From TrEMBL:
GO terms for molecular function: ATP binding; dephospho-CoA kinase activity. Its main location: cytoplasm. Catalyzes the phosphorylation of the 3'-hydroxyl group of dephosphocoenzyme A to form coenzyme A. Signal peptide: none annotated. HAMAP family: Dephospho_CoA_kinase. ATP binds at G12, S13, G14, K15, S16, M17. This is Dephospho-CoA kinase. It is found in: Cytoplasm. It comes from [Haemophilus] felis. The gene is coaE. InterPro entries: Depp_CoAkinase, P-loop_NTPase. It catalyses: 3'-dephospho-CoA + ATP = ADP + CoA + H(+). Keywords: ATP-binding, Coenzyme A biosynthesis, Cytoplasm, Kinase, Nucleotide-binding, Transferase. It holds the Pfam family CoaE.
Length: 205
């Protein structure tokens, strides 16, 4: 099994962009959001259960999950959110661990927004946090998702504090600069971490 680097950060921090830079170095990426979509793919048993529970309103005309509609329902009702999490989290965890165990590259980047919140750091050999100030999170997330500020604040409130996240980090990437300014330094930082993780993975074996 590969050396596992858990990559996390708050909403709008730029985790996906950092993961893409690692991917360009041929590092395998296992993304919790991707796995979460895979387990509720069209025709899957889990999607059938969700549709039975919430009704056809959470399905798109194509038969796929309407994620925005579902998100709106569960964020307004803690009991419904708990029901959904109870259904999905075990299935997502099992599939992520299956994919992690299948890797043969020296190390793997495991992208999990709620890595700390869901106590998944125990499966990691190292934790990498992408860090930005809360005001940057709000600005980026609202522009990217065209989402309501209130909903973004709710998502942020459901995540651990910035201080807690940083206290759990072995490595931190500061990503507060605008993309056109940040990219060269981000690429350099990822390259340095790549060399570090290859070295750590060799000793880990």
């Amino acid at each position: 099994m590969s050396y596992i680097v858990g990559l996390t950060g708050g909403i709008g921090s730029g985790k996906s962009m950092v993961a893409e830079l690692f991917a360009k170095l041929n590092v395998p990426i296992i993304d919790a959001d991707v796995v979460a979509r895979e387990v509720v793919a069209k025709g899957s048993p889990l999607l059938h259960q969700i549709a039975e529970h919430f009704g056809a309103q959470i399905l798109l005309p194509s038969g796929e999950l309407d994620r925005a509609q579902l998100r709106q329902i569960v964020f307004q009702d803690p009991k419904q959110k708990e029901w959904l999490n109870h259904l999905l989290h075990p299935a997502i965890r099992v599939e992520m661990l299956r994919q992690l165990e299948a890797q043969t590259f020296p190390y793997v980047i495991w992208v999990v927004p709620l890595l700390i919140e869901n106590n998944l750091t125990e499966f990691c050999q190292r934790v990498l946090v992408v860090d930005v100030p809360p005001e940057t999170q709000l600005q980026r997330a609202s522009l990217r998702d065209n989402a309501d500020i209130v909903q973004i604040k709710q998502i942020m409130a459901a995540q651990v504090s910035r201080e807690t996240r940083l206290s759990m980090a072995d490595d931190v990437i500061d990503n507060r600069l605008p993309l056109h300014q940040a990219l060269p330094s981000l690429q350099q930082k990822v390259l340095e971490l790549h060399q570090l993780y290859l070295s750590l993975a060799k000793n880990y074996e």
